[in-house]
Design a protein that fits this description.
Length: about 325
């Protein structure tokens, strides 16, 4: 695995600061039932890192103290954490909106057959990875057979009410490019997804998130191996749009790793760039209880151009959409 952070440290990216915290994004562990080529977390079946019950209790304390309002669960496959359901139930009982970043195929795994019903009962928002509406493209990026399983799972979710107008069950699909290019316009691609998935499979969803591939971990290492890292970074920098700075996710979000340490975003987490507070080398979420982060500086490097290039990119899709 090629490290890409040393290639980014000399950054000309503008300094930015935080606003009021509204989202806790929690990485419950790097274990996943898939090993996708674009994965910036380098997740997979052999990873063993997993958030403990004690750290999950710290997450709930911080959620209560900050009244952040949104708990964004990610991984790996976050559902593989043995305390996933306890965390969801507790957060929902607090009145928080819970978002599950789901790879879809996890709902088809042994022992997870009731997971879709659980998510629907708890009214969890599902953000589901489906990087294309074409089978060959999905299987090339995520593994053979993934597309067919994903379509079957989405149909199950639709039957429960996900993606159906008026149900209150939100289903977003996620697109990312196949290689070192910027994604197409989100609104047009969403129309294409609706047409193709609707016509061929009768599938419904609420919205499409279009994400830019970040030059870190597995994807970044692949770029280095193919001699494409520098050209991709130039593409991101040359496509920089200052207006996107106002809406980047790190303004209002804290990313928490499986050990409970805090970062300004998920990408900084993967690069080991911690949230800076009180001059400490790293900050645990226990240190954030009772602390306001408004105006705190955000750690930036060249990868931040990935969020501000073109239409912009965030955990909620394009910034300019």
């Amino acid at each position: 695995m090629h490290a890409t952070l040393p290639l980014m440290r000399q950054s000309g990216f503008p300094a930015i600061t935080r606003r009021k915290l509204d989202t806790l994004q929690v990485n419950l562990g790097y274990k996943c039932n898939q090993s996708c080529l674009h994965c910036h977390v380098n997740a997979g079946p052999t990873r063993t890192e997993m958030m403990s019950f004690d750290t999950i209790a710290d997450v709930l304390k911080l959620l209560a103290a900050t009244r952040a309002g949104r708990l964004d669960l990610t991984g790996g496959a976050p559902e593989l954490n043995p305390h996933f359901r306890e965390l969801v139930v507790a957060a929902r009982a607090m009145g928080a909106t819970v978002m599950d970043r789901c790879n879809l195929t996890i709902l088809d795994e042994p022992g997870q057959q009731d997971l879709a019903q659980f998510l629907a009962t708890q009214k969890v928002e599902i953000v589901a990875s489906l990087p294309c509406y074409l089978e060959d493209n999905v299987d090339r990026q995520r593994g053979k057979g993934v597309f067919d399983i994903s379509i079957t799972v989405i149909k199950t979710l639709n039957a429960l009410g996900y993606g159906v107008a008026g149900s209150g069950l939100e289903l977003a699909l996620v697109y990312n490019p196949q290689g070192p290019v910027l994604p197409p316009a989100q609104d047009k691609l969403e129309s294409d997804y609706r047409r193709e998935l609707g016509n061929h499979f009768g599938i419904r969803f609420n919205r499409l998130f279009v994400l830019t591939n970040m030059p870190i971990q597995r994807f970044g290492s692949t770029l280095v191996s193919k001699g494409q890292f520098e050209s991709y970074m130039e593409l991101l920098k040359n496509s920089y749009q200052p207006a996107n700075l106002d809406s980047v996710m790190c303004r209002n979000l804290v990313s928490i790793d499986w050990r409970g340490y805090a970062y300004d975003c998920d990408f900084n987490q993967m690069l080991g760039l911690p949230l800076a507070l009180d001059g400490k080398p790293r900050t645990h979420i226990r240190d954030l209880v009772g602390r306001a982060l408004d105006d705190n500086p955000i750690a930036v490097a060249d990868h931040c151009y990935g969020c501000t290039a073109g239409q912009g990119s965030s955990c909620g899709g394009a910034l300019g959409a």
